Amino acid sequence: MSDVATELRGSAGLITLNRPKALNALSLDMIRDLTAALLAWRDDARVERVAIRGMGREGPFGAFCAGGDIRFFHQAALAGDPRLEDFFTEEYTLNHLVHGYPKPYVVFMDGIVMGGGMGISAHGGDTSLRIATERTKMAMPETNIGLFPDVGGGWFLARCPGRLGEYLALTGHLIGGPDAQAAGLADGVLPSAELPALWDSLGDHDGFEQLRERLQRPPAPAGDLADHRAQIDRFFALPTVAGIVAALEADGSAWAAQTAALLRQRSPLMLHVTLEHVRRARHMTLADDLRMERGLVRNCFRLRPGAAGETVEGIRALAVDKDHAPRWNPARIEDVEPAAVAAFFESPWPRHAHPLRGLA
C-alpha cells in the first residue's frame, strides 16, 4: 500500500498518510503524491471538500505527521544527492497549494503534528478546518536539529498572538490542543474518540456542515501557554536572542530558568537565524516567506557543506548517532557574529531564477 492512500467517498476526497512506523514523516514521494491528489481534486467537480489524517501504529488516527524525513536529509547532504533540493522546492510548493486551496480542507491533527506536518495543516485557507484533540502534540522543533521553522513556519508563527510565535519558534516547545487553538494553529479541539465517525461523515454535505458548526463553539479551556503568556510576550519581544536569554536568566522564576536552559541546548546560530526569520516574515506574504525560506534552507546545507553544517550535525546527534550531544558552532549564543546570520538571508538565486518564482 502507498504511503499516501487516497479515496473518493461521496463528495469528499480523503487522504491518509500511511507511514506509521515513521510517524508519517514526509518523503519526497509522499510530497509528490499529496500534490498530485490535491491538484487533481482541485479541478474535479465531484469533489467538494478534502480531508487528511494520519495512520497511527494501532490504526487510523493517533499520529498525524512528525515532519520531514530528517534521516534522508542527513544522507542526502553527505552524499550530495540532488533530491534534497527537489524535496524542499516541492514541499514548499505543496504548502502554498494548501494555503490557497479553493475547497474546504479538513485536517485531523490527532497525535504528533510537527515540522512538515504543520506545513500541510497550518496553511489551510478561510474554509479549512484544523481539528486538534486531547492527544495532539504540536511543535516546530527545528532549532533542536540546527534548522529553522520552515514550511512557511515564519509566516504562520509570526501571526500567532503576541510573541507566541517567537517563543514557539525558538524553543520548539510542545503544545497540546487547547494551546494550539489559543495560538491560532487549530480551529477547535474535539475528543479523539469521535474522529472515526466524523471522518466517515465527510462524504456528505450535511456531515461537513455539522462538523463546521461544532468547531464554532466556544474554545477549549486554556492550556499551559496562558499561564505564562505575559512572560512570553515580555521576554520574546526583546530585540536579540542574547537579550532574551540574559533577561530570562536574570529573572529568577522557575519558568524563566527552564526556558533559558532550553534555549541554551538549541543551535546558537540557528536561534539567531530563526528570530530574524520570524520577524521578517511578519511583514511578508506567504509566497515571499517561502521564497526566503527556500534560500535559507539551501544555505543551511551549502554555507558549511557536509558534516560541517549545523543541520547535518543536529540530525546526527538526534537521529543518527543519538548521542544527544550536538557540537554546535559557535557553541554559545553570545558568540554568534551578525555577519554569520546575515549570510543565511543572501538568496542563492536572482529573483527571476528562484525555484519558487512562480508562487503567486
From TrEMBL:
Q: Which GO terms describe its molecular function?
A: 3-hydroxyisobutyryl-CoA hydrolase activity; isomerase activity
**InterPro entries xref list:** ClpP/crotonase-like_dom_sf, ECH_dom, HIBYL-CoA-H
List each copy of the Enoyl-CoA hydratase/isomerase domain by range. 13-345
Keyword tags? Hydrolase, Isomerase
Q: Write down the Pfam families for this protein, in alphabetical order.
A: ECH_2
A single GO BP annotation from the record? L-valine catabolic process
Name this protein carries in UniProt = Enoyl-CoA hydratase/isomerase family protein
